[in-house]
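Issue 218. Parser rejects a valid record. Input:
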Amino acid sequence: MRAAVLHEIGQDKLEVLDDVEAVGFGPGKVKLRVRATGLCHSDVSAMSGVLPQPAPFIPGHEGAGEVVGIGDGVTGLSAGDRVLVCWLPACGTCPACKRGQTQLCLAGFMNAGTPNFKRPGGDVFGFAGTGTFTEEVVVDAGCAVPIPDDVPFEIAALIGCGVTTGLGAAINTAQVEAGSSVAVIGCGGVGISTIQGARVQGAAQIVAVDPVESRREAALRFGATEAVAPDGLADAKQRITAGEGFDYVFEVVGKSVTARTAYESTRRGGTLCVVGAGAMDDNFQVNMFELFFDEKRILPSMYGGGDVLRSYERAIGLWRAGRIDLESMITHRVQLAEINDALDQMRTGEALRTCIEL
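Output the parser choked on:
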């Protein structure tokens, strides 16, 4: 079957091959026929080495498709079921799951170290234990979440990662209050979803911050009340908050320099929510006095900061009600053979979300 493979960490191009086989099918597993997958910035971060991932590997974790095989012991799924891919399934038994923090379950991460593909030359890993830039993939049954018939595959794919992450940051983690002021730094697919989450929560002012003009324009269409380049954030802070700072600032880039800017843009007693996934050697610093004196809440948000199954249902409900716009987030559609064009579009900021149709 066809798949897009990264041979070595640090390469910026994928090779589309037709000699890849999905492996590992057996008890507790399902085989999926991927129909649509989104290109998420985390895929690019794994390719560059910012996020840890063994190579060679197949990127992609934001996917949807159909069940084509059911392993022994799997219940609740049947061949032909339409599903989205959950890259971080909850085991239900670990301490995090028992506390209700299923987004912190580590069971899914353990899958990342087990190859679920092979080629004539050897084993191939799937990113985050999945790997959806391929025609078929074998995953744990918990990774396959049934979706209603009225949800198109491309919409379900977005809900599988970017939408859930962004919406959840505003709704679950930060719990944005109605009438509040919000700034969102980084307006790709996750940032746009964060903006939509803040709008759903009733924020009065939502300032989108991004260096790419097309993304700023898009942010206004999705609910931002103002959009500025990074050098315009200080002026927006002064005009909108009289210099005090925003009630909530979301960092959706994953870099310490933007996290520091976000911290300085947050009012005393306000909330900095870190959504971007960054590198292990990129350290964010605050001094002990400001940490104490400013009493700013620093809240990381992992995969939307809540139970992902509930978050999926909420996203579908908001989409059906017309309260969030998911179709317009897909700005580009490509075939698998054009995957490197999609990567270029993401790196330049041209694309919000690219749907790869298989």
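Fixed in the parser; the record now loads. Residues 112 and 129 are 4 Å apart (CA to CA).
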